[in-house]
Specification:
The chain has about 475 residues and is an alpha/beta fold. It is built from 14 helices and 15 strands. The N terminus is likely disordered.
């Protein structure tokens, strides 16, 4: 998208993360035709008051009513088109934290010529003004929200134009075939015969590449969104100890008393580049205690929202009827791993089956939360069973919006097989081909309406 859409409104928002006691500086971005005028009204610069483009100046922000000092700032003026949005932009660099930056923003928004930016509005203007293409803007959002280094690398590949180039190349192949088909519709008697088999071959080659991108997108979701892993089991089998071992710190209180864990405890870790949210659940058993019942109910809910379930049982006690009942409660479509914990206290025999044990269950992983024995095997089994181990070497990955559009294009190209099989006229071929081209164009932004852009950028944070 290269066409410029001039905007009449000037917008402002905090463009950096803010938190109490965090961050030495914060940046307030002002973008639009009145950005420079608003900046001059807000920031008092001593001396010659140089407001040249791409020059950093020192100044102060003062209270409009009583002329009291608000903050000491640096101000950067960037005239169009050499700015993030392609418009006139003024950035005010003030002190971080919460209070100072909010006071400076309030002072900016007190100017009637400026309004608060909507979520993603800066990035949307950058796309509309041709400074970024759509996939680059989405990649910036993904980079800001990256939860692991690998996720950040995928986002950088998108910013670098990797997704745009790949999709544009495939779309151009389809456009070439469409032009050949439409030429035959209008001037078939004047042009050489077109080989339908060769046309179909080209279309299916594009379809195959799109399917590869879909597979990569599925793997990319592990890096972007991570996995929710629920640790379940009967009371006192060591779920909390396993969580503490994997987190390398004491996140959960552990005790020999059954039912110590009463609520869900979540902890995020990174395993081989994949964000993992471990959910320590209450031990599931029959109980008359009301608080424990609530914890058990939450544990059962966690089963439904988990990407992977780790069922823990006590090796020293063996596999019991209660363990078997828990196994039956795991949803059929959710991968699960059976972990035999407390390997360090097993007797000489592999399993010390007591009277309440029903069979000698062979666990997927034998583990000791006390010594760490089997930790590497548990991690690899977890990543393998979920499919998250296939993220190594991933170069680019479509996001969910892009993946859905690629699916539409794949389905449209699939329908051309039937058209070819029935030997229908060329104009029938063009119907599905146009749909595939349109879907790929929506990925790159070549065929996207402003209403669609509004929906996309509304998911961004304010300030992006």
């Amino acid at each position: 998208m290269t066409m410029t859409f001039p905007t009449e409104e000037t917008i402002a928002a905090i463009a950096t993360a803010i938190a109490a006691g965090q961050g030495g500086i914060a940046v307030i971005r002002i973008s639009g035709p009145e950005a420079l005028a608003v900046g001059k009204n807000i920031v008092s610069i001593p001396g010659k008051k140089l407001w040249d483009s791409h020059r950093v100046c020192y100044g102060h922000v003062m209270n409009k009513q009583n002329n009291a000092f608000i903050d000491e700032v640096l101000v950067l003026n960037m005239q169009a088109p050499r700015s993030f949005t392609g418009e006139d932009v003024v950035e005010i660099h003030c002190h971080g934290g919460l209070i100072a930056v909010q006071q400076v923003l309030e002072r900016v928004l007190s100017d009637p010529r400026v309004r608060r930016a909507m979520p993603g509005e800066f990035s949307q203007r950058a796309v509309l003004n041709g400074r970024l293409n759509l996939t680059q803007a989405e990649a910036i959002s993904e980079l800001v929200g990256a939860r692991s280094r690998q996720a950040a690398q995928l986002a950088i590949a998108g910013i670098d134009g990797g997704i745009q180039r790949r999709i544009t190349t495939l779309r151009n192949v389809l456009l070439d075939q469409l032009s050949e088909l439409e030429a035959r519709v209008d001037f078939e008697d004047e042009l050489p015969l077109l080989d339908g088999k060769q046309v179909l071959k080209k279309l299916l080659e594009v379809q195959a590449e799109l399917k590869e991108l879909i597979d990569d997108a599925t793997r990319g979701l592990f890096l972007r969104q991570g996995l929710r892993v629920a640790l379940i089991g009967c009371p006192n089998v060591g779920k909390s100890s396993i969580l503490n071992r994997l987190c390398k710190r004491e996140r959960a209180i552990i005790s020999d008393l059954p039912g110590t864990t009463r609520d869900l405890l979540e902890s995020e870790i990174i395993l081989e580049g994949v964000p993992i949210v471990l959910i320590d659940t209450a031990g599931i058993r029959t109980t008359n205690e009301e608080i424990e019942k609530l914890g058990i109910a939450k544990s059962q809910e966690a089963l439904l929202g988990a990407d992977v379930v780790v069922l823990v049982f006590d090796l020293s006690r063996g596999w019991t009827k209660n363990d078997d009942t828990l196994l039956s409660q795991i949803p059929k479509d959710v991968p699960h791993i059976i972990v035999g914990n407390k390997a360090d206290i097993q007797n000489d025999s592999k399993f010390n089956i007591q009277k309440n044990a029903i069979i000698a269950m062979e666990p997927d992983v034998t583990f000791s939360a006390l010594t760490g024995e089997g930790e590497g095997n548990l991690i690899q089994t977890l990543l393998t069973n979920s499919g998250a181990n296939k993220t190594q070497g991933l170069q680019i990955a479509l996001n969910e919006r892009q993946r859905d559009l690629a699916d539409i294009a794949i389905a449209a190209l699939e329908r051309t097989k039937e058209v070819a099989a029935q030997k229908l006229p060329w104009d029938f071929w063009t119907i599905d081909l146009r749909e595939a081209i349109k879907s790929l164009g929506e990925i790159t932004g070549d065929e996207v309406t402003e209403a669609v852009l509004d929906r996309i950028f509304s998911r961004f944070c304010i300030g992006k």
